[in-house]
Design brief:
Helices cover about 25% and strands about 30% of the residues. By secondary structure, it is α+β, with helices and mostly antiparallel strands. The protein folds into three domains: about 100 residues, Classic Zinc Finger (Double Stranded RNA Binding Domain), CATH 3.30.160; about 160 residues; about 270 residues, Neuraminidase, CATH 2.120.10. Helix 6 runs parallel beside helix 8. The chain is elongated, with a radius of gyration of 35 Å. The protein starts with 16 loop residues before the first helix and ends with a strand. The relative contact order is 0.07.
């Protein structure tokens, strides 16, 4: 039965409207959301008996309007239902967090807890839910503006990298004869291709950001326009929330693409000796570190689960493995140093298997990546550094003699930084000539046992991080070996391997059998994995974004399964 539209004189109570039209004042027990009328218990039974109305949704006394004033003099709501355009939105389903018309209730929300928007919307504008929505929009607008700024900055960086590397290439090209014209052309095409691909990708991001910003501005305007109408404001805000979540996800996707691929022109040493060499003039080498990442991967946001490890024990090994260092190489390869067996083990990460090993003239400890797929390795017992080419046959090349037994090594701008037994750290050129030694106090080194180091380089600033095993500290040095900061947290006991990932540092706490992530900018440290995750006496951990896996080496004498495998943790 449809509502007559006739106003009641006594509007302080809700009366059964069909009975009222017959001259009776009977208190209503329910409200029909389709017919828009109040019903007493007798009319309810008749309503449910009629074929035309038996499926209508009825609100009981706990949910229906409290008086005829609420029913007749509702706020002027002219917002149509998205699903049923001829019906107005008047109800809120708290179970599904949706705003609905009467038809929606009949079809999809018959068993749900329903609220009448006009009864709950008055307090919404000043409530926490609305404040959260506006705060979320404001934050996302700021993030969009920051992302736009970073995209524009990265576009300039892409162009500058291309210009700088082309200049380096041309300057070097002047030193060779005209026989290298074809090689020069090839290298220029590689650089231009990388630059154009990066710029094209970054150029495509700004319109996407602008689109998100426009949508957010539109949402904000819609909310501002409805602030005098609490019903419409409630409805619009509920619609906006889900759209904001979608836009936030879209912005995260954009941020993941907003990176700059670092690359540089590397001179080939063979060019000066043999012009006819196949690698004459040089190569274009992409840096494994992609430079500044606008939104770097936060390792603490990742969850890992242990999977099958990678056996690196070989039948030709003279004893059990003692894996002391580990490097990610280009081509999804992992290089692992085996101190006990005087070898380097090369692992294919795609197949999770050891594919070759390199015999060394001494016992390796630490190592680092050099340009052009080369590696420098500290031979502890020989007091020397040996250089290897990891392309093709993975051949051992030249070596340099150093003062005393050396632990670990880092590389930056044609210079080596080496840590020695006794706690000394020295910067030297590629021939082993000392450039600078770290300062001492009363003739004594500042470190007790600097077993491990790593380079942190964001493309603008470079630093060396050093773990001191017996002092239980991690120290950050500038590239001239001056101390910038020392981290001394009780959670770190006997720190071993360090690995830089963006502005984050992976620390293996050998003494507490834990792996930590240290944010170098804030100094915040969080445990990533521990003994409950299967971690035992970790030596080093590296994370591969391509494989979405964390690779860990450990050592405890006599535990062959622990020592002979690279342990693998996959991102959940």
């Amino acid at each position: 039965m449809e509502v007559s539209g006739k106003k009641l004189s006594d509007q302080d109570r809700a009366y059964c409207q069909p009975c009222y039209e017959e001259g009776e004042h009977i208190t209503a027990d329910a409200f029909c959301t389709v017919c828009k009328e109040f019903l007493c218990s007798t009319c309810i039974n008749e309503h449910r008996a009629l074929k035309a109305t038996k499926r209508h949704t009825l609100l009981d006394k706990t949910s229906m309007p409290t008086s005829m004033t609420d029913k007749v003099n509702e706020e002027n709501n002219n917002m149509p239902c998205d699903i049923h355009p001829k019906e107005f939105i008047k109800y809120f389903c708290s179970s599904h967090e949706t705003v609905n018309c009467g038809h929606c209730l009949v079809i999809e929300h018959r068993s749900c807890k329903i609220n009448i928007i006009s009864e709950i919307s008055d307090s919404f504008k000043n409530g926490p839910d609305y404040r959260d929505i506006k705060s979320l929009i404001s934050k996302l607008l700021k993030d969009v503006n920051d992302c736009i700024s970073d995209v524009e900055s990265n576009i300039k960086t892409v162009l500058k990298i291309g210009e700088d590397e082309i200049k380096k290439l041309k300057d070097y090209r002047e030193k060779v004869n005209n026989n290298f014209d074809e090689r020069e052309k090839s290298l220029l095409e590689i650089i231009e291709q990388i630059k154009d691909m990066d710029k094209s990708r970054l150029d495509s991001l700004k319109p996407k950001c602008d689109e998100i910003k426009a949508k957010l501005d539109e949402m904000k305007c819609k909310l501002d326009a409805q602030e005098r109408n609490s019903v419409n404001l409630f409805i619009e805000a509920k619609k906006v929330r889900k759209q904001v979540e979608c836009l936030e996800a879209a912005l995260n996707d954009i941020s993941k693409e907003n990176i700059v691929q670092r690359y540089e022109f590397i001179k080939d040493t063979a060019t000066e000796k043999l012009i006819a060499a196949s690698s004459s003039l040089g190569i274009v080498s992409k840096d494994q570190k992609t430079g500044k990442q606008t939104v770097p991967i936060d390792l603490t946001s990742l969850k890992f689960t242990k999977v099958s490890g990678i056996l690196v024990k070989s039948s030709t090994d003279i004893g059990e493995c003692w894996l002391t260092s580990m490097l990610l190489l280009s081509g999804n390869r992992l290089l692992v140093s085996d101190h006990n067996n005087s070898t380097l083990k090369l692992v294919d990460l795609q197949t999770s298997s050891m594919i070759s090993q390199i015999k060394l003239p001494g016992k390796p400890f630490g190592m680092c990546v050099l340009p052009a797929d080369k590696v420098a390795v500290c031979l502890f017992d020989k007091s020397s550094v040996v250089f290897l080419d990891t392309r093709g046959q993975n051949s051992v090349g030249t070596s340099i003699k150093v003062e005393v037994k050396c632990y670990d090594i880092a590389y930056h701008n044609d210079q080596l930084i080496v840590s020695f037994e006794g706690g000394n750290i020295v910067k030297m050129d590629m021939e082993g000539n000392t450039i600078k030694k770290m300062d001492t106090v009363n003739g004594k080194a500042l470190f007790k046992s600097c077993f491990n180091m790593t380079l942190m380089d964001d493309g603008r600033n470079a630093a060396i991080c050093v773990s001191d095993y017996y002092n239980h500290t991690v120290t950050k040095l500038d590239i001239d070996l001056n101390i910038l900061q020392t981290f001394n947290d009780p959670a770190i006991q006997n720190p071993r391997g360090l690995t830089a990932f963006g502005n984050q540092l992976l620390i293996c706490s050998y003494g507490t059998t834990k792996i930590f992530r240290l944010d170098m900018s804030s100094g915040t440290m969080i445990q990533l994995l521990g003994e409950s995750d299967g971690i035992q006496h970790p030596y080093r951990a590296v994370y591969s974004p391509e494989q979405n896996k964390l690779y860990i080496i450990s050592y405890e004498s006599g535990k062959n399964d622990l020592d002979n495998n690279v342990h693998v943790y996959k991102e959940k």
